[in-house]
Amino acid sequence: MTVHDKTIHATALSRRSLLKAGAGLAIGAYIARGGKAFAQAPAPAAYNIAPNTFVIIKPDNTVTVLCKGIEFGQGQFTGMATLVAEELDADWSQMRADHAPSNPVLYKNLLFGVQGTGGSSAVANSYIQMRQVGAAARELLVAAAAETWQVPAAEITVESGVIKHASGKEGRFGEFADKAMQMPVPSDPKLKDPSTFKLIGSEGIVKRLDSADKTDGKALYTLDIHEPDMLTVVIARSPKFGGTVKSFDATAAKAIPGVVDVKQVPTGIAVYAKGFWPAKTGRDALKIVWDDSKAETRGSAQLLSEFRALSKTPGKVVKSEGDFDGSMAKGGRVVEVEYVFPYLAHAPMEPLNGYLKWEGDTAYARYGCQFPTPDHAVIAQTLGIPMEKVKLDVILAGGSFGRRAQQTTHVARELAEVAKAMGPGKPIKLVWTREDDMRGGYYRPYSIHRMRGVVRDGKIEAWSDTIVGQSIMKGSAFEAMTFKDGLDSTSYEGSNEIPYDVANFKCDMHQVDVGVPVLWWRSVGHTHTGYAVEAFVDELLEAAGKDPIEGRLELMGKKPRHAGVLKAVAELADWKKAKVETGRARGVAVVESFNTFVAQIVELSMTDDGPRVHKVWCAVDCGVAVNPDIIRAQMEGGIGFGLGHILYAEQTLDAGRPVAGNFDTYRSLRINEMPEIEVVIVKSTEKPSGVGEPGVPPLGPAVANAMAKLGVGRPRQLPIVPGASA
Amino acid sequence: MAAFALKINGQTHQVDVDPSTPLLWAIRDGAGLTGTKYGCGVAQCGACTVYVDGQTVRSCSLPVSAVGSSEVTTIEGLDSKEAKAVQKAWVALDVPQCGYCQSGQIMSATALLNLNPAPTDRDIDLAMNGNICRCATYVRIRAAIHGAAKTLEG
Fold this sequence. Notes:
Helix content of chain A: 25-40%
Radius of gyration of chain A: 27 Å
Largest sheet of chain B: 5 strands, mixed
Number of strands of chain B: 5
Helix content of chain B: 25-40%
CATH superfamily of the largest domain in chain B: Beta-grasp domain
CATH topology of the largest domain in chain B: Ubiquitin-like (UB roll)
Shape of chain A: globular
Shape of chain B: globular
Number of helices of chain A: 20
Strand content of chain B: 15-25%
Oligomer: heterodimer
Strand order of the largest sheet of chain B: 2-1-5-3-4
């Protein structure tokens, strides 16, 4: 559904009131200045295309909340609607949600300064803003009812979607929506005291708004878009990163029935066809000679030896406290280990795709877009038209895990390029196959952590972490905001600030260039730093003869929220007293990411096929818990996602060519491998923080630590079961 | 190209495609039914699961020319009491996250309950391990199948 043309009655909320959302704005403005791609954003005046900014109230009393970000499983629709409904005093049954269109002014993420979803920020950046929207809408409806009934607004109450006056007058939202639209928008709507919340933090009342459509096949994804005369496009891209087309022969491809045309585009050779199958078979029939002169040609073994050699030399210092070298020189129990992390594909269930119709001087794009503002800008730029002449609608996406937002906007650019190559007036749907997705790069970076530490008299005296890795942000619009002293902070986040008091500490880094495109992957740097830190602290505590939980707590004097989740998970799993079955062992880890704190305890045994995780206990502190059941769902999903990858997943390179192409060689966790999970949400009055990513990082090290307890040692190189096929 | 008269959900759909076209694409691009999803194309993920004469099939790997006059059922055509119980249980537990694999999950879960009204965890593992969920909603899938079985009992 497109929001503009279906609106009947609506509550107009001015930008003035909606953007009064506190400190986020100032931060946003700063980020926008730093990002070069976003400098193209036009003046706000050009964007008055969405008058009903966040809430649509219809005569049938339904309240539709327009979400700034994309719903791709994390529960954003339900979360945003909860915040609005709370302040609006709506009944949950009348709430609906949809995506807001791309609009860099109205729908910017207040933490980013541009419209986009990421960094587990949906609730974190909207908590106050969406409540203000709900509160303003409520005040407008009350004012409209007061005028209609000729009674003072102060005498009117709203409860569960019903507006009432003591005189017995009663009405519902739909009746007053028209009049409310004409009223002046309150500049400073009053927000509820959290102690009076009915929906935020509730159990059993708020259900996901997208469940029904996702169980009967109705939910519409980009792959499902079919428009008259639409052509499906599949592209042959270089098998090696950085390769280019030397020459090609499309004779055989063009002979395939259903293939309409073949064009060279910047990313390869595009086959245009009536439907996916002819496009795909046409692509497979292309004869292409690739020029690999500028391609990355190193293989995985070579990268490992180069990274390993570097890790043994000092890198650029990220952080140094005390005197690491001096402390090591004093001797004691010295521990040195290396952890190797592979390239990982995101492999969302729905591979990348997009729909675009270019009309020459305007264009319409529609897809599961995670970063509307930069995508919007690059589509306009590629087509050579102003941004306000491009309309971009966001729809559901079949997962992302980071993949649908790119620092390079390469998918949006490719989408515009294939439309441009075909000429105006031809609607096209670009589709990546699973193999295109797996072999298309934009992986979690390959990295090595070399950890060194010393234990004396039962105490961790020194700790160092030398990281070798590839920057995600280098050369992108995000470089200015993520780089510190020439290093990409997302490569070491979590390694430079550990939650443990260690007097002599050092974190240093070698930032290496590899010709493989890399990208943020569910929890970004924490995917590897969480493992390195938490496996290593466990290793040092073992050397110190300490209990993994007691030992951690002793070092967490300055970290109450880390300690809080650790204590909570210990209690949940009955860590001290539980009798663990023979042949099984437990391990623990705690990681903070995106201001959310998660501790997990894993119980596993070893089989011929590797570890079998039986149960995971999880404690999470994400500040105010807006939707407890969605928080639990994200912890469950994060645990499964984390487990599948540390057990089986890696993308290897054979002379630069990515090897794994599908789920037969890039093994994914299946239901028979899913552990039982228990989650406890730690009560908190802190600002709400995200849950989409933070469930992932602790799982890997908790598994490693349980394996050590079982006597098989902590895996030094991931995945744990290399070469596993499905 | 060749013309095929596909019986899908009780209706005949004329689709004009190459005989090698997998049933999945005949259903999606030919008949315009998009609830059945593409996830891997090599019978690894189960997102494309449909029934052909009541048997679960990975439609991405079955050429349309092999379907003949068989009855094809997709997520849009599910209407048995088992299917309704499964879908209701899915909503009650808010199983879906991104939702993209769930058509296939529900087709497989319904097929399981058709054969086995009271599946054990082991039965669920065997029946459902051909369906990948990258969001890893497996805990809730398992619980929802048990929940659906319970409602069918009573």
